[in-house]
Amino acid sequence: MAQTASEPRQSTGETLAADELSAQLEVYRRELTGYCYRLLGGAFDADDAVQETLLRAWRSYERFEGRSSLRTWLYRIATNVCFDQLGSSRAKRERPMGLGAAVDPVEESLATVLPEYAWVEPVPTEHVLPGAGDPADTTVARESVRLAFVAALQHLPAKQRAVLILREVLRWPATEVATLLDTSVASVNSALQRARATLADKAPDRSGTSEASAPPSADESELLERYVVAFERYDMKALANLLREDAVMNMPPYAMWLEGIENIQAWMTGPGYECEGSRCVPIHVNGTPGFAQYRPDPKGGHFPWGIVVLENDGKHITGITTFLDTEKWFSRFGLPDHLD
């Protein structure tokens, strides 16, 4: 892959000052985090992988001969780090919808709680996606970090996962991918075909859109605003009007998930939900608008409750995912630990 004008100058054969080398490597943190997140499905796993990548690059930079760009070299290291993690992981990450059938909207459905490593995790959009660029590339990038897509990636073998991300998301030529993975172009093309077939089976498009025709961000933001207003008023009729008939709702770390407007309404108005009076702080999460939910605090103000990811088809909400480990997620998104 050719070195771009935006890529820092390499000093091949020279000894860099520590701060200069650190600055050169740090330029790639965000895009490497996005790459590792897609591969691993865990936000904190991706952080660890990127940190290990940069550490390995720092330690071995004097042996870097400049036969490829610095960016390509870092991606090679990151791929190997992620493959090591995937080889030692206990199980692939999932979403509740991938573990079994929908359940009834009753409190007993909360019986099964799974550990954090079982779930695809949310990530702040700005941590994994580049800034403004070509609109088509931006659309593909946003779609590639949606929860459903990242979950589907976890069903692929590690090599297929890397090939699909590098070829279809990052737009690397097959020859560059083959070099990075120490394999042939024919092997890369074969892996890509198998990965596409698996994704077609594992990732049905609930949004009703394709990558090329994904709804613009303005439409999503307007839908989010309407949802937040209805939710803060706890207007169940208005909320129901925003949901698609087959909308789903889930709350990791619980394995339960609900399907359909009536079941979601029943849960939201049930005795165990207790979200009336909540306040919502808009955020961008996994390439789509979402919000941080704060529940009323009996002592005054509002306390953190969940990070909510809203999936949509441009006209209706198709999925509501609430991540409930507030101590971990609210700090990661830079959110306050209490609202007055």
Short description:
With 340 residues, this protein is α+β, with helices and mostly antiparallel strands. It is built from 14 helices and six strands.
Span from first to last CA?
A: 51 Å
Mean pLDDT: 88
Number of domains: 3
Q: How large, in whole angstroms, is the Cα Rg?
A: 21 Å
What is the chain-wise order of helices and strands?
HHHHHHHHHHHHEEHEEEEH
Largest sheet: 6 strands, mixed
Describe the structure.
By secondary structure, the chain is α+β, with helices and mostly antiparallel strands. It folds into 3 domains: 14-89, RNA polymerase sigma factor, region 2, helix turn helix motif (Rna Polymerase Sigma Factor, Chain: A, Orthogonal Bundle), CATH 1.10.1740; 128-214, Arc Repressor Mutant, subunit A (Orthogonal Bundle); 215-332, Roll (Nuclear Transport Factor 2, Chain: A). 45% of the residues lie in helices and 13% in strands. It has helices at 18-26, 29-40, 43-60, 70-88, 125-128, 135-143, 147-153, 158-169, 174-180, 185-202, 217-233, 236-242, 261-268, 326-332, and strands at 243-250, 257-259, 279-285, 288-296, 302-312, 317-323. A 6-stranded mixed sheet has the order 2-1-6-5-4-3, with helices on both faces. The longest helix has 19 residues, at 70-88. The radius of gyration is 21 Å and the shape is globular. Mean pLDDT is 88; it is low at 1-14 and 206-216.
